[in-house]
Amino acid sequence: MLNLRLGHLFSTIHSKICIVGGGTGGLNISAHLLKTFSPSDLRIFEPSQIHHYQPAYTMIGGDIADHHVAVRENKEVLPKNIPLTAAYVVKIEPEKNLLHTDKGQTFSYDHLLLLTGIQLDWDKIKGAKDAVEDPSSTVTSIYTLAGAEKTRMLGRGFLGGRAIFTEP
């Protein structure tokens, strides 16, 4: 009997190094790896077409930069010639060195780097989501572009008193 998975194995694309995440971490490590490896040895997985340079959110919130510093198209910032797979990685099989995308693709690798960034979950703090998303609220966060812009506006309108800052 023919093993139907056999055909699936032949469609697997192999890369020496797969980098899951094309944000700042993925871009930095891929640029560093290009000193040792050729672009064809690497593959970046990033579903978004827009790159958010999140460290700049602090500068936006501090009113020393605008969103153009933080938001650019991926094609402007991704290293040239490194293969890009514009898909979500939905499953990783580390024991087989395989990963699968939401588009039904399977990739094999020698080494895997996971640089997927953070996942905000405002619902973990009672009332936080409503407060952060309410434009009339004085609660904000620089962990989103909208929050960084709101922080800038709140800072411009601050007339004195107490401001409380926290760390995650």
How would you explain this protein's 3D organization?
With 168 residues, the protein is α/β, with parallel strands linked by helices. The chain is built from six helices and eight strands; from the N terminus they run H-E-H-E-E-H-E-H-E-E-E-E-H-H. Strand 6 (89-93) and strand 7 form a beta hairpin. The chain starts with a helix and ends in an 11-residue tail after the last helix. Residues 1-9 have low confidence and may be disordered.
Low-confidence stretches: 1-9
Average predicted confidence as pLDDT: 91
CATH topology of the largest domain: FAD/NAD(P)-binding domain
Helix content: 25-40%
Shape: elongated
Derived structural class: alpha/beta
Count of domains: 2
CATH superfamily of the largest domain: FAD/NAD(P)-binding domain
Strand content: 15-25%
N→C terminal distance: 56 Å
H/E series: HEHEEHEHEEEEHH
Q: What is the CATH top level name of the largest domain? A: Alpha Beta
State the strand order across the main sheet: 5-2-1-8-7-6
Radius of gyration: 20 Å
Treating each run of at least 4 consecutive H or I residues as one helix, how many helices? 6
Main pleated sheet: 6 strands, mixed
Helix and strand topology:
Elements: H1 4-10, E1 13-20, H2 24-33, E2 42-45, E3 50-52, H3 56-61, E4 71-73, H4 74-77, E5 84-85, E6 89-93, E7 98-101, E8 106-114, H5 128-133, H6 145-157
Parallel strand pairs: 1-2, 1-8, 2-5
Antiparallel strand pairs: 3-4, 6-7, 7-8
